[in-house]
Design a protein that fits this description.
about 140 residues, alpha+beta, Glutaredoxin, globular
Length: about 140
Amino acid sequence: MKRLSGLLILIFFLSTNVSAQSSKWQSAFNTAKAEAQAQNKMILVYFTDNDSKSDEKVLYRQFWSSSTFKSMASNYVILNLKVSKERKNKANEDIYEARLKKNFNNQDKYPMVVLADALGNRTGISLSEISEVAINEFLTKLQSH
């Protein structure tokens, strides 16, 4: 009985560890791009800041935690780009981050989710309005892409 319970605990920890690794969010563009190319996946670029907490909560509940997204999450590498108030100031922003923002978030909206291919090219599919209707439309576009 002790062996069986020990085995079950081991299986639980191993499966938890594997699922945590497969859903690991990246924070560096080049790492996300390399992972996407190696695994033949698309990239979801998630822009967030410290000022949009209510929108981020809605996005978390209705998008990231939705059964629809969870069912297709393994098809994507998720890149989480956090922008602080200080870094929004262009004088303090590094050139690399400025280029990423210009390419993916030229509207300077937060939070925002943008779909890119494995090479890091923007596909034209994005979520910049945080509402139930917009989130559902975005999920539909992801399902058909």
